[in-house]
Amino acid sequence: MFDIITILLAIGLALSFLLSMSLGANDAATPTDCAVGAGVISIRKAITLFAIFTFVGAVTQGFMVMKTIGKGVVSEIDIAGAVAISIATSLWVLYCSYKGLDVSVTHTTIGSVIGYGLTAYGLSGVNYDVLRNVVISWITSPISAILVSYTLYKLTAKILSGKPWTQRLEQTISIILIVSLCFSAYSFGANDVGNATGAYVTVAMKVGKMPDYHTMLLLSVMGAVGIAIGGLFWGKNVIETVAFRITRIDIIMGAVAELSNAIVVYSFTTLPYMIFGYGMPISTSIASNSSIIGVGLAKDYKAVNYRTVFKLVAGWISTIPVAALLSATIYMMLKMIVGVSTV
Question: From 75, 232, 313, 318, which residue has the greatest number of CB atoms within 10 Å?
Answer without folding.
Answer: 232
